[in-house]
Design brief:
This protein has 298 residues and is mainly alpha-helical. The protein contains 8 helices and no strands. It folds into 2 domains: 146 residues, Up-down Bundle (Four Helix Bundle (Hemerythrin (Met), subunit A)), CATH 1.20.120.30; 137 residues, de novo design (two linked rop proteins). The chain starts with a helix and ends in a 5-residue tail after the last helix.
Length: 298
Amino acid sequence: MVSKGSSKLNVSRPIFMLSVAFVALVAFVIINLVVVFIDAARDRQNLDHASELRALSYRLTGLSRDATNGDEAAFSELRSVVGQMDSSWDQLRDSGGELPTDSLTAFESSFAGIQTQAGEIIEGQETIIFLHDVVSTLNDRLPQLQDQHTQVVDTLLDGRAPADQVAVAQAQSWRAERVGRNVDKMLAGGADAEAAADQFNRDANLFGRVLEGMKNGDIALGISRVTDSRARESLEQISTQFEFVSNSVQEIFDATPALFRARQASDRILDQSPALLESINGLSEAISALPANRTLSN
C-alpha cells in the first residue's frame, strides 16, 4: 500500500519539473527578446552611420571641387567632412564583429584613397587661394592694362615716335593678355597647364623687363627710352597695376605644382566616388541582412 507522503511526492515532482521548464522558457524568451532589441538598436545605429557616410561622400566630392576653385570656406568644410566620415567609420567598425569582413575591407580601401586625395587638397589651401587671388586681381586689371597700352601706342603714333617703340608697346599689350590667359589655364588644370605655367613665367618676366626698358632704355633688348611725357605717365600707371604680378612671378610659378596636385586629387576623388558609394551600399545591405542570419540564443 502506497503511503500518502509517497503519493504527494510523486505528484509534486512533475509539477516542479514543469515549473522549472516554464521558468527556463520564460528566461529564454526574455533573454532572446533583450538580445533582439539590442541587435536591432545596433543595426539601426549602424544603418544611420552608413547613411551619414553616403551623404558626406556626396558633400566631399562637391567640396573638393569648390576648394580647388579657390573657395576658402570649402577648405574648412572639407576638413570637417573628412573628420566626420572618419568618426562614423570608426563607430561602424567598432560596433561589433557581425559585419562581413569583405564589406568592411571594401569601404576601408575606398575611403583610404579618398582621405589621401582630400588631404592633398587641404594641404594646398594657402597656395590655391593665393593663385586664385592673383588671377582675380589680374583679370580685374587686365582691361586697364590694355587700355593704358593702347594709349601708349596712340601717343607714340601721334608724336611720330620710332616704329620700333610703337611695335614694342603693341607687343606688350598682347603679352599682358597672354599672361592673363595662361594664368587661367594654370588654374583650370588639364594637359596644357604645365606648358601654360612655363609660358606665364617667360611672359611675365619679359613684360617686366620690356616695361623697364621702355621707361629707361635697354640696350640688350634693343629698346629705346620713351621720352613722350604722356606716354611715360601711362607707363608709370602700367607699372603700378602690374607690380603685384611682377613682384610675385617666381612665387606664382613655384606655387603651380601644388595646384596641379590638388587638381589631380580632386579628379581622383570624382573618379573614386562611385566605388566609395558602392562600398557604402554594400555595408548597408550587409547590415540589413544581419537579422535574417542570426540564431536565437541557447
